[in-house]
Amino acid sequence: TGFSIFSITTISIPVVILGLLFMLIFFPRWLPNREQNKAFSNLREFTLEVSIARNGPLVGKSVEEAGLRNLKRVYLVEIERNGTIVTAVSSEEKLQSDDRLVFAGDTEAISDLLRISGIVPSAENGHEQPLMTQRAERSLVEAVVSPHCTAIGNAIRDARFRDRYGAVVLAVARNGERVKGNLGSIELLAGDTLLLEARPAFVSRQRYNKDFLLINDLDTETPRHERAPLAWAILLVVISAASFAIISMLNAALIGAGLMIITGCCSVNQAERSLDITVIVTIAASFALGAALQKTGVASFLAENIINLSHGIPWLLLILIYITVSFLTEMITNNAAAILMLPIALEVTEKAGLNDIPFVFAIMIAASASFATPLGYQTNLMVYGPGGYKFTDFLRVGLPMNAFIGAITLSVLLLGWPLTASN
Length: 423
What we know:
By secondary structure, the chain is an alpha+beta fold. Helices cover 45% and strands 13% of the residues. The protein has helices spanning 9-30, 110-114, 161-165, 201-209, 228-243, 249-262, 268-274, 277-295, 298-310, 314-331, 334-352, 357-368, 378-384, 391-416, and strands at residues 47-52, 74-81, 84-87, 100-105, 119-121, 139-145, 167-174, 177-178, 193-198, 212-217. It has a five-stranded antiparallel beta sheet. Helix 1 packs antiparallel against helix 14 (391-416), helix 9 (298-310) packs across helix 11 and helix 10 packs parallel to helix 12. The longest helix has 26 residues, at 391-416.
């Protein structure tokens, strides 16, 4: 039949309260304190600036012809020219007198640059940090490489950031520490934190491409704090209308979203950016996937094996299903884990003559309780790099957290719901 909006509240309240206490007591002891480790705190650490000599031999030459494209230790980021910024510089860009060139990479390579005829120290080098100045042509973005990024496994120089993303990598941080050395040769891994100088369109494109998880966007539209009370009121009305079955949850959500835009609580652009196309497509595809598992007999096959493994003991069945979903959600997304296990759990309860409600609740919690790997959920990955964490940190706190949340959930379900179906 389906559940109401607060059907899961009885289980989730003890999970939230006890889970928070567990985190507050044990996480500070188990996790290293890397609070002071700011990989990108000082732009001067990984950028350097030079100028094109007035009437020098490089004037009128392209970046490629000047030999500035394939330098081994540094990477040309931008050109400042007559008060404007040329970002994601192409190889064909012509150099002009007094151009200020900003490079990223090994800052000790400044001496190598100054050996090139026609390049001189910048008049303002060592005083102003040019990248700290906000420009309309430039967007400085901190982003985490997602597991779906096509650049994973490639060196930065081979990933064609300029052509593919309209961005330039200024620095890379891994496990909270900046990766030093030849920037162009660094091979990207999921979870790496990048400091990018990008064209303004980069941010809006990545809302849909999902190659990167945006952490800090200097040009993000600021929230409309003055309309917060109105937004709270709309939210409470939506929840109340759905809770008391005045209108369906879908209609309440649609009306609430429309009111948020009409009343100016958020702009159309903000609303559009908040849509996660991947989640929407996954939910839509779940209907077909669930039907396929049942039609092809896969759900029935797996259900029979789970029943045999548990010897038909109801409480052991519940524990096995929870453990299976918890394991899957660390390997794949929580949406996919729930989609895969729901038809199997329904098949199990039907064959064993059990009450399916506690089993479905177990899937809900297990699919969302993903703490043991940074890949289990995108918020885990977002804090992985900027927090300076390692994979072992997630295992150290995540495995006990998964077990603790599982024990609370299963205890509440076993105490609060009968496992056998009523006649």
